[in-house]
Design goal:
single chain; mainly beta; four-stranded antiparallel β-sheet; elongated
Amino acid sequence: MTFDSQGNLYILQDGGRNHVWVVRPCHTQANPAVELFAVTPNGCEPTGMTFSPDEKFMFISIQNPDPTNTLATTDAAGQAVVFNKSTTLVISRKGVLGTTLATEKAQPELAKADVFPNPATGAELTVELTNNRKEAATLQVFNSLGARVLEQTTVLNQGVNSLRVPVSKLRSGHYTLVVKTATTSTTRPFIKQ
C-alpha cells in the first residue's frame, strides 16, 4: 500500500488477480470510492510502489510474471513490450513525458521547512518555511488513513515565513503536512498528542 500527497491510497493485489487499486480520500463504507488503477501481467506480483519526490512518476516492481507470457503491451513510445520477466515499471501522465530538457533550469525548492512543536501539544502547529520567491501556497494535513483533515491557503514571501496551523480539533495520532506551491511540494510528518 502507498499513499500519495493527495491522500489517494494505492493497493497492490497479487494471488492471481494482479490488480492495482486506488482508494480516494473521500471513500467511506456508505459511499465507496475505489477504482481499478491498473492490471499487471499474468502471474506476477506487483510490489514496491513509490513516487518520485515531485510525484510526476510512479514506480512499481513487477516480480515473477509468467515466463510464457507473449501478450504485448504498448508503451509510451508506441513500442510493443512483453512482460515475461521481473522488471520495474515507470508510470507517468502523457503531459509529463518528454517535457523536461537537460538545459531547463531546475524548479526552486523550499530551502527549509520545519514543523514544531512535534509532537504538537497545544492548539497550533508552527510551520517555518524558507522560500525563494513570493507565491501562493496550500497547506494540507492528512491523517494516517490518508484522509485530508485540514486545508488552508496562504501566500509565502521570499525568505523566512512562519505560519500557524490550527490543530486543536485533530485527534491524537500521526499526521502528514503537505505544503504545495506552483513550483514545489514539501511533506513533513508530525504527531498530535
